[in-house]
Amino acid sequence: MTPQLLNAVITARTERRAIAVVTHLSTGAQRLVTRAEAASDPVLDKALRFDKSGVEQTDDGEVFITIHNPALRLFIIGAVLIAQSVIPMAQAAGYDVTVIDPRGAFATGARFPNVALKGEWPDEVLPALHMDQRTAILALTHDPKIDDPALEIALKSEVFYIGALGSKKTQASRLERLKAKGFEDAALARIHGPIGLNIGAVGAPEIAISIMAEMTKCLRLGG
What we know:
The chain has nine helices and ten strands. The chain is an alpha/beta fold. The longest helix has 19 residues, at 203-221. The chain is elongated. The model has no long low-confidence stretch (mean pLDDT 93).
């Protein structure tokens, strides 16, 4: 790897940009491919989406694809019961988890050990957290004063998954409020609500399973 290419890789990792280094096995030539550039190449796109480095056959011959994806992150709005069930599953799947809730009685270390906790309002915290294509966000409080500002910020970002807890009626009301804020239908379609895959989940642990399944589907297979 040339010094220039190495510096580009280091910079991309520092800036949390997903990239791949493609090495042509017959010549040793290397090139860096961004996530946007890979979108038009099914082989590279799949490798990046599935975090899969390895040898692949292309029109130009065999290449070795080295994936440099940022760590997965999950921002949970609401230190609630469902969050307690989601967190261990998300951590097992490789997510760095942060719980955000301005209600001090909820977001405590006793209830959420070994998890990053933010006691500020979401709109005070999220703008500085660089929400990118390797980030998911869950709005779980059922309180529009807390959830809506977080959803507004998420909709303006590149996060790969936005989920919001609530019934179909709650989701409809939520979308009307966000439309009044100027969001169009195409943007609002990014919000998964009611949250999670429809598996007939009952209780917090099963709902957490449905949420993680839907997140994984969006991460690996797209929206």
